[in-house]
Amino acid sequence: MRNVFLLLCLLFCSVSNLIFAQYSTDSARIYLITASPGSETYAAFGHSFLRVVDSSQGYDEAYNWGTFDFDTENFYLKFATGKLMYYLSINDFFYSAEYYRRVGQALYLQEIILTNKEKYNLINNIQINSQEENRSYRYDFFRDNCATRIRDIVVKSMEGKVVFDSAYVDKRESFRHLYGDYLKNVPRNYFGLNLIMGKSTDSIASISDYMYLPGHLQNLFASAKVIDSTGVRNLTKKPVQLFPSTIEVSSPPKLLSPVAVCFMFFLIVLGLTFWEFRSKKYFKWLDICLFLVTGLLGLLITWLWGWSLHIYVHSNLHIIWASPLNIVAAACLIICSKIKWLRFYFAAYAVSVILLIMVSFFVVQELPIGSYFLMAAMIVRASRLFYRKNEITR
């Protein structure tokens, strides 16, 4: 009796799969949808999701792996430490498309060319992923996000081997340069992001890694080939624009760029230091502000290095000039600057920053140009404090 029951179960599953496969083959179409970069910071890299359509059944849904809940407890803390959970959400496609049209982002539709079995595989894998126990995942900006999830589930569902065009780029770039291309019009964001990103960000991205960015996912899918028993075929059809972007892109004034601002800041610090020598005065407030602010930045870098699951904020060389010990130095300047060891701290600090500048052209972490002017300003003030023997000797 037990064997008969098992046989009936297997027969039922086989029939169900056959029905679902036939349903998928006859009527369903699956598309990669790509949204162009938006005006908000979180939308600067664009977005990717899948569209599953069955007009005969009145089914047209968008499957979005980039969903998160703003109401999550300790949202910003979890986001910074890499503990924020993202999940797969399912929405009406036209509702989703209307959102992107309203905010001004262009939307591109790209049909994925699938055999009967591959279509079944992909729909089945999506359904498994959409189950409550499977829909959440820990977000990783470079390795596991809304775009890479689509790449992986499509490749997994294919019966043949998916080959991405290795000639897509003449020279492969680092993760830092790849996201930098999307932040050209918001250089302050690029500068700030580079201050907290560690040396892992400068590793060279593989062709597969490029697809963490929606625009590269779209382009690489468009040029990809599928090799199977029947021969070689395209992975997708050419992208079709559903509606254009209405976002006006404007470059910020060059005088307000991070490089220009940091350079002007260095000139101000240098000018104030020269004024000190000429007037025989000491601007104690300047050193307190400089070492306190850089110390707080160093504290943030240290915290991210030690507590964040994002490995790309680890091993950050900015911690040398933005040292958390600068907070202690600033506190000592406030309380009592006549501390013997404090003078030698400034000497050691200045030397370490000079060495960082010297070796920065040979190490794996790329430092933003503006940070060199900040480091130069800190060297000037640390050297000034070291040579003030009458004030910091006892």
Radius of gyration: 28 Å
Largest sheet: 7 strands, antiparallel
Oligomeric state of the chains?
single chain
Mean pLDDT: 88
Number of helices: 13
Tell me roughly what share of residues is in helical segments.
40-55%
Q: Assign the structural class, choosing from mainly alpha, mainly beta, alpha/beta, alpha+beta, or little secondary structure.
A: alpha+beta
Number of domains: 2
- How far is the N terminus from the C terminus? 95 Å
**Largest sheet: spatial strand order:** 6-4-3-2-1-5-10
Question: DSSP strand (E) fraction?
Answer: 5-15%
SSE pattern, N- to C-terminal: HEEEHEHEHEHEHHHEEEHHHHH
Report low-confidence residues grouped into runs of 5 or more.
Answer: 1-24
> Total number of β-strand segments?
10
Can I get a quick summary?
The chain has 394 residues and is of the alpha+beta class.
Structure description:
The chain is of the alpha+beta class. The chain has two domains: about 25-170 and about 205-245, no CATH class; about 255-385, no CATH class. The chain has 13 helices and ten strands. It has helices at about 1-25, 75-80, 95-105, 115-130, 145-155, 175-180, 185-195, 215-225, 260-280, 285-305, 325-335, 340-360, 370-385; strands spanning about 30-35, 45-55, 60-65, 85-90, 105-110, 135-140, 160-165, 225-230, 230-235, 240-245. The chain has a seven-stranded antiparallel sheet. α1 (about 1-25) packs across α4 (about 115-130) and α12 packs antiparallel against α13 (about 370-385).
Write the layout of secondary structure elements.
Blueprint: H1 2-27, E1 29-35, E2 47-54, E3 59-67, H2 75-80, E4 85-92, H3 93-103, E5 107-111, H4 116-129, E6 136-138, H5 146-157, E7 161-163, H6 175-180, H7 187-196, H8 214-223, E8 225-228, E9 231-234, E10 240-243, H9 258-279, H10 284-307, H11 325-335, H12 340-359, H13 369-386
Antiparallel strand pairs: 1-2, 1-5, 2-3, 3-4, 4-6, 5-10, 7-8, 8-9
Helix pairs in contact: 1-4, 4-5, 9-13, 10-11, 12-13
